[in-house]
Specification:
Number of strands: 0
Bound molecules: zinc ion
Distance between the termini: 48 Å
Structural class: mainly alpha
Helix content: 55-70%
Length: 289
């Protein structure tokens, strides 16, 4: 007899992966159209080279890219590798988030949060902007999740709630503690990014960071809470600095004015913190006991 108890979770991960690839296909539309302020619902997707409408059978995530051999059916111009890459990455992250949350009421919120971060990462990489049409709804999502998820799941769920409800917010209703955690996280996230930008501007006399990074970290801070927000900034600054130094060394150009789309690194830091951050922070704190 095969062990049937393994089947449901395996099927669940396959469903999460396929769903992730479909959402990834939608994120491609968001990444392409939001910076141009176009509707993400209408019209149908078109080939960026010849303008031909892409048929539904040529728009299947990843599979169509392989079957079309990375070329438009009409004009044979190459299709950017970014499209299947975003679809595969979203699929992999949806499986990872499903593994992290299990079948929980927190899962849809974590999936939307991850999708918003993915869209921000790729838009920042291409256009060096973090659009308000993603960060503002992201902040609203964070506040709704903060109130709803602890009640729906019956657990604190958010990383900062246990420490807050044992400390300053002892005896408070759960939603008050949760929203207070969101406010503290948002102020730490948005505040540190604003302070970094302000300091840089005073030191170098140039604007290094836009308000987009501040709003993005406002959203991340509200959702993840102060511990994972500090971790996000740490991971973001560390990975951004390493990549920045490597790029500068390659270009043999010691020009500190070279701008890095910092949102990419903050976004990656936030996703890593969502998935693994609580264990990392607990392990780190345990070193000092
Ligand atoms: Zn074409």
């Amino acid at each position: 007899m095969p062990d049937l108890s393994l089947v449901p979770s395996a099927v669940g991960y396959v469903i999460a992966g396929v769903f992730g690839a479909i959402i990834g296909s939608f994120l491609n539309v968001v990444i392409h159209r939001v910076p141009m302020e176009e509707s993400i619902v209408f019209p149908n997707s078109r080939c960026p080279s010849c303008g031909a409408v892409i048929a539904f059978y040529d728009n299947i995530p990843v599979i169509s890219y392989v079957l079309l051999q990375a070329k438009c059916r009409g004009c044979k111009e190459p299709i950017s590798f970014r499209y299947p890459a975003v679809e595969l990455l979203t699929a992999a992250l949806f499986v990872a988030v499903a593994w992290h949350d299990g079948l929980s009421a927190a899962l849809p919120f974590d999936l939307i949060f991850t999708s918003a971060l993915l869209a921000l990462i790729f838009i920042d990489a291409e256009h060096m902007i973090l659009p308000n049409v993603i960060t503002y709804p992201g902040i609203v999502l964070a506040l709704v999740a903060r109130i709803a998820v602890p009640y729906l799941t019956g657990t604190p769920h958010f990383d900062d709630i246990p420490s807050l409800s044992q400390g300053a917010f002892a005896g408070m209703p759960l939603w008050v503690t949760s929203l207070a955690g969101a406010a503290i996280g948002a102020l730490i996230g948005g505040g540190s990014l604003w302070l970094m930008g302000w300091t840089w501007e005073k030191l170098r006399g140039i604007e290094a960071m836009g308000l987009g990074d501040v709003k993005m970290m406002f959203m991340v801070g509200a959702y993840l809470g102060w511990r994972l927000t500090i971790l996000t900034i740490f991971v973001g600054v560390l990975s951004g600095s390493i990549i920045g130094v490597v790029l500068m060394a390659r270009q043999r150009e010691r020009n500190m004015q070279m701008l890095l789309p910092f949102g990419i690194f903050l976004g990656l830091g936030a996703i890593a913190s969502l998935l693994f951050g609580s264990q990392w922070v607990d392990w780190y704190a345990g070193q000092f006991r």
